Amino acid sequence: MYSRLFVLILCLLVSNPSSAHDHIWINVDTQNLTLSVMKGLATQAVFDNIAIGRFGASKTRMMGDNRTPLGSFRIDRVKEPSRYYRFFGLDFPNREAADLALAENRITKETWQSIINAIETGRTPPQNTPLGGHLGIHGLGQGDHEVHGLYNWTNGCIALTNAQIDKLSKWLKPGVVVEIW
Q1: Element (H or E) spanning 41, and its range?
Q2: Second label for 95, Cα 20 to 30 Å away, from 51, 111, 114, 124?
Q3: Beta pairing partners, 58
Q4: Distance separating alpha carbons of residues 106 and 102, to the nearest angstrom
Q5: Distance (Å, whole) CA 49 – CA 66
Q6: What are the two backbone dihedrals, phi and then psi, of residue 126, each rounded to the nearest 5 degrees?
Q7: Could you give phi then psi for residue 12, rounded to 5 degrees?
């Protein structure tokens, strides 16, 4: 686990050394079910017992597979209030997910182009492609705390308790990087 985190941090430093030291980013560990708020290499806060997609996480997420996508994303929208109390949307599908899906023939060239056009014009990528969408970090809303504590239950989102999302929300702004691994 620590070797994967080290490689992730190293990649962030190499790709953009100044931003890795100055900006807040979110680190989601899908194996240990933790979400950490990072400022460069320094941990600002850790939230344990998060829930992810009911069928785990995958680089090759598809609509309806109930998996959390792995990769680097950004918060691109905020919805308060929401069905899940607070919702911080991810820019999924992003270019990396679209490129991989096209290479593996999981989407058409036309679908790929619609995702890329949205990205290049600063819009939220289409949420109704075969890759799915409407993914983010959210609270429970009126959901069952016991279920949340026992199971990965989401359709691919990252869920925290309402109290946790209240504490986390001060760091979740559009543009914040979310690394899911």
Answers
A1: none
A2: 51
A3: 69
A4: 6
A5: 18
A6: -55, 135
A7: -60, -45
Asked if 176 contacts 77 with a C-beta cutoff of 8 angstroms, the reply is no
Neighbour tally for 130: CB within 10 Å: 13
Place of tokens 């990528």: 125
In the 8-state DSSP scheme, what is residue 15?
H
CATH of domain 2-92+132-180: 2.40.440.10
Please give the Cα distance from 30 to 40 (Å, whole number).
Answer: 20
Domains in the chain: boundaries: 2-92+132-180
Judged on CB neighbours under 10 Å (0-12, 13-18, 19+), 122 is exposed
Given a cut of 50, whether residue 17 has pLDDT beyond it is no
For the stretch 56-115, pLDDT in tens is 999 999 999 999 999 999 999 999 999 999 999 999 999 999 999 999 999 999 999 999
Token readout for 115 is 């995702």
Interacting residues of 86 by C-beta distance below 8 A, sequence separation 6+: 78, 79, 80, 138, 139, 162, 165, 166, 169
Amino acid identity for residue 124 in this structure: T
Dihedral (C-alpha) 100, 105, 110, 113: value to the nearest 10 degrees? 10
